[in-house]
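[Meeting: bench + compute handoff]

Bench side (C.D.) handed over the final construct sequence. Compute side (W.E.) agreed to return the predicted structure before the next meeting so the bench team could plan truncations. Sequence as handed over:
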Amino acid sequence: MTTTIVFDPLIPWPLFLMVAVIVCIGILLALVRGLSGWHLRGLAGLVVLAALSGPSVQQEDRAPLSDIVLMIEDESASQRLSDRADQTSSAADTLAAQIDARPNTELRRITVQDGEGDAGTELMSALTEALAEEPRARISGIVALTDGRVHDADLPIDLPAPFHVLLSGKAADWDRRLRVIGAPAFAIIGEPVILTLRIDDLGAAPADEPVAALDISIDGDEAQTFRVPIGQDLELPVTLPHGGRNVIRFSLPEAEGELTDRNNSAVIQMNGVRDRLRVLLVSGEPHAGGRTWRNLLKSDSSVDLVHFTILRPPEKQDGVPVSELSLIAFPTRELFMEKIDDFDLIIFDRYKRRGILPSLYLENIAQYVRSGGAVLVSAGPDFASADSLFRTPLGAVLPATPTARVIEQPYLPLVSDLGSRHPVTAGLPQNGEWGRWLRQIDVTTTSGNVVMTGVEERPLLILDRVEEGRVALLASDHAWLWNRGYEGGGPQLELLRRLAHWMMGEPELEEEALTATAIGQTMRIERRTLSEEVPPLTITGPDGTVTELPLSPAAPGRFETTFTGPEIGLYRLENGDQFSVIGLGPAAPREFVETIADAVALEPVISAMRGGVVRLEDGLPSVRNVRAGRPAAGRGWIGFTPRAAYQTRDVRQTPILPGWLVLLLSAGLIIAAWLREGRR
């Protein structure tokens, strides 16, 4: 039972103060005028003021409440390094026993796991949620058992009691870390791009290793090893081998004694782009569709076009000197012999043998194809003649043989069954029915894939690979009819654009490919193929775990599936003869960027309530009581602040000045003052 005096004024406090001032003024006036009853008048005023203040005796029936101690146990990934998990678990159990043995004290144990995604250790968020569930007036202390690697330490929080950190780990721990400081998202194919790396030894690292072995691999190929310095920014030139996504992996071998190798690798995904696409267009003679290819290629700002047009064949005898027909001589030898490898694509549009390009030049073009170049032949009637380009050294790399027949009749170009699965012709835009073409060169396929057919399903568009290069044969010179809108036209620009980009090896048009895109830790995997079936997909995780998934048909020639990676890192994908790699999140999760136990991030929170940091390897501290505002930690001990909280069960109030007593006292004093002054 607790007794206190409380005041509950009958009028607002400002008005009460005004009444008090009036009473004082009245007493002063009586004193100045020499009234003998001034003191009785003052006592009467005090009685009235006391009555207006509403004094009463309050009696409370209180039940004491126990103090609450919050103990936060960090079970994030970094706490599983070395023997930190056992160290923390043992200390938590021992400390819990000490707290349970304290009188009038309750313990709340809170476990902190890894945050969602790559959020890291969100210890302060967990503490905020725990404080919201407990009465702040009962919290006497907070203890966090952690390695100090907290990633939300800057979260503003108002603590009601001392905050202590029991630090896991050992002072002798050390770790080696690899970081990519700077890397562009794009790079030009064939040109070196500078990446900035840094290798650091953290903690109590040995001082006898000034260099480390760095392995570099691109798209999972065999790694190359370099000796690089430790503790310095390293500028590394890297050349991307192909267009599209290039996955570059840097890794360090695990050093003896280091905490973990999870931060010894880094993965960069860079897109390779071409600086300029260099195309050589050779037009055999002027014709109605002669500007089709030129307009298409000139409309693309990323294409450098060299157009070689034969306007006057050698056999034409009109008596006009050559010097008067051209301003400069066309550099045929320079183009077709010396600089042919500078071109990404060579297009022959209705070209035939005329003695302008010697067989040596055409043999050089055939070798250019075998070495990785690309040639597209748009065939006209001359392709079926004795002067056909097929009857040159270039014919050895062409995918079809002309039958010497030229079909002159309307027909509708159609995508073949195989073409419906090939990225060049699959899903071509179609508004109604395409317009017809009027001429086709009859050819017999010797190799390659027929993706479009014409008259009586004869081959119209054939795509082929010759050793390292690519060849395409379009057995008609009437694609321009679609561009002119004949009978409604057709997707001429889209078809020719895809065809040109496939020949130049653009990754998104590869007919056999395995690609993956990641959103968070979920990847969508796509397999493009000309086959009607594919084997199961094999996924190898960062820890070596192998998973097999079936691929479901999504469209002709396209199979898809999704996979959620259980952890962050580099995944290897295999399907048949196709191979790909993809990184989910950073190669080193946030938990392993900083691994040395350190409470620096929590220092502002600790010092705010005068708490302390104790290393568990030095032994578990004892627990003491400290007064609020006093230092709550010392050598070998930590302190909690007793809160003396209670629960009020019953409250009773008894007025000190009841109304009858106030009336009696005030009236008696006033009458006494009147009688005294009247007697005088």
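W.E. noted at the follow-up: The CA atoms of residues 37 and 572 lie 105 Å apart. C.D. will use this when planning the next construct.
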